Amino acid sequence: MRTAGRVVLGTALAGFIGVAGIGGYNLYRGVTGGSEPSVPDGAVTPAEVKETARDFLAAWADQNDLRAAAFTNDAQSAGAALSGYREDGRVEKLTLTAGEAHSSTVPFRVKAEIAFGKTRSTWTYDSKLTVVRGRTTGRPLVDWKPAVIHPELTAGETLQTGMADNQPVRLLDRSGKELKQGRYPSLDPVLNALRSRYGDKAGGAARVEVTAVKADGTGGTTLHVVTKGKPGSLRTTLDQTVQRRAESAVSERNGASVVALRPSTGEILAVANSDKAEFNAALQGQTAPGSTFKIITAATLLESGRVTPAQPVPCPKTAAYAQGMTFHNVEESENPSATFAQDFAASCNTAFVSLAGSIPDGGMAEEARAVFGIGLDWRVGVTTFDGSVPTEGGDGKAAAVIGQGTVQMNPLTMASVAATVRTGAFKQPVLVAPSVDNRRLATSERGLTPAAVTQLKGMMRLTATSGTAARAMAGLGGDIGAKTGSAEIDGQATTNAWFTAYRDDMAAAAVVTAGGHGGDAAGPVVRQVLESP
User: What is the per-residue pLDDT for 98?
Assistant: First the structure.
């Protein structure tokens, strides 16, 4: 039910009595002796200003939109705007208090009683109107513009009362301490995404506000807060100690990204990028992982019985697969008497290419999906890219065995690969517990065979203690394992540096764009994270 409002006249308008409404128009159209109606011209008089302002404000306060609009020089636009103010603005009662006129301008105070559900709020603000003479009628009319309703409204904008898009949410780390916006700069986009996705599931109440809505329907300036709302709380898996180390590590290198997680549960402990853009390279990047992918290649070979860690697999300077592309090692290194474990630890490309024929087309893609969960639909809690491994043969397969070609990964997926080796079974990474929204997590078809777990962990430990990862992992105790990578990128003079490793119940992976050798550039990033207590 509409509640009648009222208009309170200021000193300059008080006591002025005149004919109001549409009928008042006849006062300006005298008919004499069949002559054409006379049309007043010239500046509006003080009396006209007072009367027009009084009648307009009285009709608006009474929420008689059509009548109020008739006192303006754009009745159609004014009528729509005033109706929108009442209906979309949820204005239940309106009191308008006119001030003293200044020439043709009349200031007035607005007191709007807003009702949104069970919420009530009083909104008080100042506005003003200007009276002009109508071009065709000569009538004194309110010069219509949205700013009459509220001084901050511009052309095409209207008022709307409703719930804010994002409900207030306090994001907590795994221990229940608040993750404050701005404390970890590269984490801010992740926190924003979590608020947007889980705001209505965090137990809070959304803020209700009056906003200026643009012509295209998008929200603009907040003009009045009806109710502040009640923040909800959402606990994440993040660990602030690990996050601080990750932030520090990526801050020292341009183009660096890192992810740390807990192998036993898949819980993500930290996400950091040196680039603070909305695009999160650590979680959403899609780029070749270089030799870190040899973990999956080795798993494919070991589980199929095609090779054993102690088996001799020479490492020549170059190798070609099926008389196709020629592959080489970093700095043209070679080891004719190497074992497969030594090839892995030294990251020998040519040895792995020589074994490509032992892997069926699609074999690595199957191993990646069925054992490591790569390419499945991960429901982490924010948008992620969950890896892609090609099924092609020929040179494409040969490139894929060393993590080149069309293999696509990011630090999240490669940290998960290392974690799967550490425990022997894939645990889908998560930022928010699935119980919050009852989402189903991805599961692999099977775990690694016990023999493959022992073999892979031994090879990764060898890499961490005496191979290409030894410098970065030096001095770290516990159950450790690592793998380095350097990925060639078309049009890029220097390779991307990759490093993935685990230490007890923490796994991490990092990439540094154009960083060069994985152990030199990405290794220190991962090491700093793994040093977390």
Answer: 97
